[in-house]
Specification:
By secondary structure, the protein is mainly alpha-helical. Helix content is 89%, strand content 0%. The mean pLDDT is 91.
Amino acid sequence: MNLILPLASSLLSFLFAALVLDQWRLRRRPFQLVWAFGLSCYGVGAGSEFLGSAFGWNAGLYRTWYLFGAILVAAWLGLGTIYLLAKSRFGYFAGVTVMLGGLFSL
């Protein structure tokens, strides 16, 4: 069970990211593009958790999990929600802040 859940989460989040990206391709709403990236980050984080649980953890895998699974997912999904709800310059300010925070966390 400890292997099935992260693998299923990773695969489903990549599938959902592809569906949201397809919606963005048709409608061109910025929040859909941001959510697709956030869901892809979740897929990478869950995939690294699966690999770590299945084959053992190392420093690079743990850093990948921490960056994508713990830092970027919440920031990018939250930014997509801000883009959806706030139709002002605040959304762009939040976007720049999230991108800078992601760069500094590398």
